[in-house]
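Sequence only, no structure available. Ideas?
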Amino acid sequence: MGETATLNLEPLDATFGATVRDIDLRALDESTWNALHEAFLEFGLLIFPGQFLSKDEQNAFAERFGPLEFKAAAISNVDKDGNVHAADSDDIVKSLRGNQGWHHDSTYMPVQALGAVFTAEVVPPGGAPTGWADMRAAYDALDDDKKAQLEGLTARHSLYYSQGRSGYLPSQNDKGGYDLYGYHDLDVSEHPLTKVHPETGRTNLLIGRHAHDVSGMTREESEAFLDELNEWACQEPRIHHHVWSEGDAVIWDNRRLMHRGTPWDMTQARVMWHTRIAGDPVTESALNHSGPADLGDAKMELPGPDA
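Reply:
I predicted one. Tokens follow.
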């Protein structure tokens, strides 16, 4: 590795995260990239105000961290014709409301995501914040008895489960299934409740709204156990909510952090772009999968009406 630049970093008032100023993500020399990657591993969440990246520029920045699970997709209540989606029965609204529960991305897929780059194009009044929660700090704060209890336990992760439990399953297609991303018919992914980060060597909780059916527990016992653990983990100083301004960009480490959207008045337009960075199949595959799988003829449309 070559020379490492000095970044203008402002750590957040939390156990993780930093704002990075005086940087252009379109033009990173080697020394700045080295510093940025080190900061990514140290802080887990990096916030870059006022970048105004194009979708191609966003994808190019994300690809510095690894191959993409998918390119920039709209996380938005605005369709390509400019119509705003606000009805509770609307599938787009259901997806957005489901995302307001704490979760890691793609734990319901054969390979959990490494992270994501997220940018703001249109921001409603109030900034429609996005929250993140530090599962490394949460694990560190557990007492020894709880750590011992979690050792060796696994949970299944499913978008069918999380959206169904919250009442936000989308409309079925004519075959009785769902076409949106993540609603596959592969084996339900299984993950340990604690996992060592492959680059930092630190242990993290791996929980969130997609997790269910903890090994050795009934469905009722598992839900009570995970609900309590999720609620405890996602508390100050382990959380941060970023209030968006148009042009902001962030990147987060999905192996360490959970995240969630927050409610806003959906009669107001919000347009965000999400580029998902694929996890390494060697370290991020579910216990019952060996890597990315062929999803066959499934449409697997990306979220958002303009994706």
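The first helix runs from residue 30 to 43.
Hope that gets you unstuck.
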